Amino acid sequence: MDKQVRVLGVPMDLGADRRGVDMGPSAIRYGGLADQLTSTGIDCIDGGDIAVPRPEESDPDAGGLPSGRAKFFRETKEVCEDVATAVNATLMEGQFPLVLGGDHSIGIGTLAGAARDDEELGVIWFDAHGDFNTPETTPSGNIHGMSLAAVLGLGAFSDHEWAHTPAVSEENVVIVGLRDVDDGERRLIEESEITAYTMSDIDTRGAPEVVAEALEIATDGTDGMHVSLDLDWLDPTEAPGVGTPVRGGVSYREAHIAMEYVAEHHDQLRSMEMVEVNPILDEHNRTAELGCELVASAFGKRVL
Ligand SMILES: NC(=[NH2+])NCCC[C@H](N)C(=O)O
Ligand SMILES: [Mn+2]
Ligand SMILES: [Mn+2]
């Protein structure tokens, strides 16, 4: 990575049920992000945090969608628009945007800011979850479980320009590490043209092969790639500090090799985000520290 990296924190927790991910950006900074990047030879600056309204001062049902179907829709839209503006400005400055969550709903904003109308942007979504629910299928009403569907303009998101990002086409989107999918969400994934690699694909084929194929899909014929790293992608024994842990995730080594493969595509890498770190549920900040290590691997840190 030869560009200067600009860190943008988004202390967002309106898209998830369990409070605490709003402290993710602090925990990640405290976990040594700047040192990890500097020791990788990356020039980085901290762009601070984007303001997020407090849930106590917000109305979860004020978004104009049927009650409960997409909680804090209006606030999520406002935060995502600000994230998109900041990511876009970062790219215009010639810097690389590294967005820290916060819950995964912020991915809608990151992608809106990273995409260009006349281009195709590939996406790799490292996650236990599909985040492919729509307001019509969601069992929880939590937007962090809908972000990828929102970007692709599915269901009620089709007429919401702040979310639907046409530069992201289904055939250039890959989910890696899937192991927890809701019923309606499963149908949407199956009907779509995205590629979803489950944990059994990783078990049978090995992480390196699966990740290499994912990178191929996200970069072949696209003008750039966004990497979204949900820390619940890892097994909870490695990453306990996440709001929606699911057993059976990737190991520490598998996660590093995946990020090292990402680094090999640094020419195509346009933006990256790391989300869902919840320090309240963590053990001595180890999930945030692991996240910092993984970001360093994605930016080229090697043992030798
Ligand atoms: N980004 C996440 N951690 N997403 C979890 C989503 C969980 C569940 N599928 C839901 O829609 O509520
Ligand atoms: Mn997610
Ligand atoms: Mn997840």
List the helices and strands and how they pair.
Elements: E1 5-10, H1 24-30, H2 33-39, E2 44-49, H3 73-92, E3 96-101, H4 107-114, E4 121-126, H5 147-151, E5 173-178, H6 183-191, E6 195-198, H7 199-205, H8 207-219, E7 224-230, H9 252-264, E8 269-275, H10 286-298
Parallel strand pairs: 1-2, 1-3, 3-8, 4-5, 4-7, 5-6, 7-8
Helix pairs in contact: 1-10, 2-10, 3-4, 7-8, 8-9, 9-10
Catalytic activity: L-arginine + H2O = urea + L-ornithine
Binding site for Mn(2+) 1: 104, 127, 129, 131, 230
Pfam families: Arginase
Describe the structure.
This protein is 34% helix and 16% strand. With 304 residues, the chain is an alpha/beta fold. An 8-stranded parallel β-sheet has the order 2-1-3-8-7-4-5-6, sandwiched between helices. α6 links the parallel β5 (173-178) and β6 (195-198). The protein starts with a strand and ends in a 6-residue tail after the last helix. The model has no long low-confidence stretch (mean pLDDT 96). Bound molecules: arginine (ARG) and manganese (II) ion (2 copies). The site of one manganese (II) ion has 6 residues, from loops. Pathway: Nitrogen metabolism; urea cycle; L-ornithine and urea from L-arginine: step 1/1. Keywords: Arginine metabolism, Hydrolase, Manganese, Metal-binding. Mn(2+) 1 binds at residues 104, 127, 129, 131, 230. It is an enzyme of class 3 (hydrolase). Mn(2+) 2 binds at residue 232.
